[in-house]
Design brief:
The protein is mainly alpha-helical. 78% of the residues lie in helices and 0% in strands. The longest helix is centred in the N-terminal third of the chain and has 26 residues, at 2-27. The radius of gyration is 15 Å and the shape is elongated.
Length: 114
């Protein structure tokens, strides 16, 4: 079970890296929402939900899991709002774009430091 848990952790990290890496590339480029960022969010969210299940490896920290879930939902909302504006031909507002990156990084910090 520990090996499967470790594999899911790796998938979760790949999702984070995809989301944050895609955002970082756009931060120095056109500052737009990309499919790579959206897929990274989906991968990180699904793997995170799988990790929140009791694996028999100790008691899950539900306060931490809940906090991370709230942050990832906000990031998803910001991605959705920015993507919708982009589809209408508008640019993504700077606070919305920077909020995605900052909250993604905050979520990683919560995972490591809490």
């Amino acid at each position: 079970m520990a090996i499967l848990h470790s594999i899911v952790v790796i998938i979760h990290l790949i999702g984070f890296a995809t989301l944050f890496g895609g955002w970082l590339v756009e931060a120095v480029g056109k500052r737009r929402i990309t499919k790579v960022m959206q897929w990274g969010l989906v991968i990180a969210l699904v793997a995170g939900l799988a990790l929140s299940a009791p694996w028999g490896l100790g008691d899950p920290n539900y306060a931490k899991i809940g906090t991370k879930l709230v942050v990832v939902i906000i990031v998803g909302a910001l991605l959705g709002i920015g993507g919708a504006r982009q589809k209408r031909g508008e640019s993504v507002p700077a606070p919305l774009f920077w909020g995605i990156g900052i909250l993604t990084l905050v979520n990683a910090c919560i995972a490591i430091l809490w």
